[in-house]
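Hi everyone, sorry if this is the wrong subforum. Our group has a chain we'd like a structural model of before ordering constructs, and none of us has done structure prediction before. Sequence below.
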Amino acid sequence: MGLFQRGAERRLFLLPERRQVEEKMSAAMAWLFPGQGSQAVGMGQSLHRDSSAARDVFLIADAVWGGSLTGSMFDGPPEALQATVVTQPAIVSVSLAALAAVREAWEARHGIPLPEPSFVAGHSVGEFAAVVASGATDVATGLRLVCERARLMQWAADTNPGSMVAVLGLGRDAVEAACASARETVPGSYVSVANDNAHSPAQIVIAGDLPGLEAASAACRERGARRCVPLTVGGAFHSAAMAPAQEGLARAIAMAPFGDPRVPVIANVTAIPLRRARDIRAELAAQVVSPVRWADTVTLLAESGCRRFVEFGQGTVLGNLVQRAIPDAEVHSVGDTDGVGRVVEWLGSGAGENASA
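Answer:
Right subforum, don't worry. Here is the predicted structure as tokens:
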């Protein structure tokens, strides 16, 4: 089903020892895909320069976006890259390009397809990259849905102006109580928890209308929060403010081609593994108005035995969160050509040890 299914059939005909290498390497590994906030001018440029497989992804991204998305990514200006309709497809295209580059380099070196992980997971819009990586849909479909998601979310944000605030040093229950208090005191407020990064210094992110955010921030400080930091974002994402976007996104997802994933996708909304196309469709539509349960996702991966992680895309945010939560985890990030080389070398050394065992 597109770029990431190339050579999948060959696995059926591998020699037994080759198959054992793949099985050992794929055990207890997760691939991670970052979300909005990790963007930076110049991202993906070395991948485009050095990998033909990555260039294929970027060509698809430009075609789907309807212009030079890569121009905004590589050259800026920074304010253009901050627009939701640019940021979301840019982030996902870099993630998929990084994965394509690693697959290409691995196959060139070892002559077999890159072994798949035990799980994939993506943060917010990164979940669309995770779904593509799982084999549930192809690159073009994933990027088309991301472009539609970004358009609809920007429209919803313009319709329901709001923002997001990071609450430092306060547990989720107390933050939820503060949001409930704000909703009671501010008529029409929909402020709520949008993101639970329990292993991050930011910990909890709340989203909502501006008066509700102000009241919730004050209530959080009263309950002992160290700081409440307003975030530079284009709207109150993962909250009721995005309800106008959900219906249109659900229609687009329903019309898109999906199959069952080869690799389970850990859902943002429930932090459970998804193994059916129908469940992935429902998840991608629901997550736009639902909190991202990232702390629960990392906990599930740890409890499932994952100790090896690769973050595909710009930055190291998710890898850093994993490292805080799982101190003995091996974490690698791939956002440029150097990262591709390091990960292929790391995976290859493991394969060599397993092959000689």
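For your construct planning: The chain is about 50% helix and 15% strand. The domain at 162-234 is CATH 3.30.70.250 (Alpha-Beta Plaits).
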